[in-house]
Design a protein that fits this description.
The structure is a single chain. By secondary structure, this protein is an alpha/beta fold. It folds into two domains: about 10-220, P-loop containing nucleotide triphosphate hydrolases (Rossmann fold), CATH 3.40.50; about 225-310, 2-Layer Sandwich (Alpha-Beta Plaits), CATH 3.30.70. Helix content is about 30%, strand content about 30%. It contains eleven helices and 14 strands. Strand 11 (about 245-250) and strand 12 (about 255-260) form a beta hairpin. Helix 4 packs antiparallel against helix 5 (about 135-150). The protein is globular.
Length: about 325
């Protein structure tokens, strides 16, 4: 059971969603902490969007339960009004322009801040005249960010909010999110693949793989609970033999391994004896280690053909 002793804004118990008999979300028991920024991480198809859709009552579970502020959100208006969910493919009526989307949001979200919306529209340079249907990918993402931040919803979901944005626009989003969150604390859940960029935003992370939660913890706890070794592949193999290796990889005669556990003096001595270099693991690399899959071959990365996935087992 993956639960949190702090106050939970969202609680799921055995949450499962099947599509034609195939689980998109599989027996997920999870508490998402109130008034924290949580990263929802994992590969494409891991179940991130499905989880957000179930929590926001845009879909029904096949089994299990979800509670938002203690209530089943489905067909409960007062609970739905507490949430804002901006999908990566958010759709609008064909004739909608910017002003229509803003007016609709102001009506729907009880905590709406028009001042925030106006300022962000200017910052992101969102055009007023074209219909939204003709917006670029980046303009659509900018509009989603405006709606999400200006909604001031107690629970706000951003599903890949940065698609099509250049580096400057992405950093405007990060800065604005942190400033608004500090002034108006609330529960924020971010689905993202740009983990290194968003590293400093996140307080907690949920890592999903194939519809299951493989890790849920504070970011600092996650970082402090793993390390990486690198050197000769044979030396790496020897080092991980009696340790919990999340992943190992070899290219030519060189190897690296992400090892789960706190680094102790015995580990340092063993690494020194084997001439291995020890380094911290980035959040990006940790997520990759947890989500390589049973075959050990991540999608579209031929350099990692020799990766062996050892998650949950002693390295051998």
């Amino acid at each position: 059971m993956t639960t949190d002793t702090a106050t939970a804004a969202i609680e799921t118990r055995g949450l499962t969603r099947l599509y034609r008999g195939v689980p998109a979300l599989d027996d997920v028991t999870l508490d998402i902490r109130e008034n924290a920024i949580t990263g929802l991480l994992g590969r494409n198809g891991a179940g991130k969007t499905t989880l957000m859709s179930l929590v926001t009552a845009q879909d029904r579970p096949s089994s299990g339960t979800v509670r938002v502020a203690g209530h089943d959100p489905f067909e409960r208006a007062e609970t739905i009004e507490r949430m804002c969910f901006l999908r990566d493919n958010q759709r609008y009526p064909d004739d909608y322009r910017l002003k229509h989307a803003i007016r609709a949001a102001a009506i729907f979200y009880p905590h709406w801040s028009q001042q925030t919306a106006d300022r962000l529209i200017d910052l992101f340079r969102i055009p007023a005249k074209p219909i939204i249907k003709k917006f670029s990918r980046g303009q659509l993402s900018s509009l989603g960010i405006v709606l999400g931040l200006a909604s001031r919803s107690p629970i706000t979901f951003f599903d890949e909010p940065y698609l099509g944005l250049d580096a400057t626009a992405r950093h405007i989003f990060y800065d604005e999110l942190l400033q608004d969150y500090a002034a108006h604390p609330r529960t924020v859940v971010l689905s993202t693949h740009l983990i290194d960029e968003m590293d400093q935003l996140l307080e907690r992370v949920v890592i999903l793989d194939r519809g299951r939660v493989v890790r849920h913890s504070d970011v600092e706890e996650l970082r402090g609970g793993s390390y990486q070794v690198a050197g000769r592949a044979s030396a790496v193999d020897e080092f991980v033999r009696d340790r919990e290796a999340l992943s190992t990889r070899s290219i030519g005669g060189l190897g690296t391994a992400v090892v789960e556990g706190r680094l102790g003096d015995e580990d340092r001595e063993a690494a020194a004896r084997l001439a291995l270099e020890i380094s911290p693991v980035s959040l990006q690399d940790l997520v990759a280690a947890y989500g390589l899959g049973d075959t050990g071959q991540p999608d579209a990365d031929p350099e990692l053909d020799n990766v062996s996935q050892l998650s949950g087992r002693k390295a051998s």
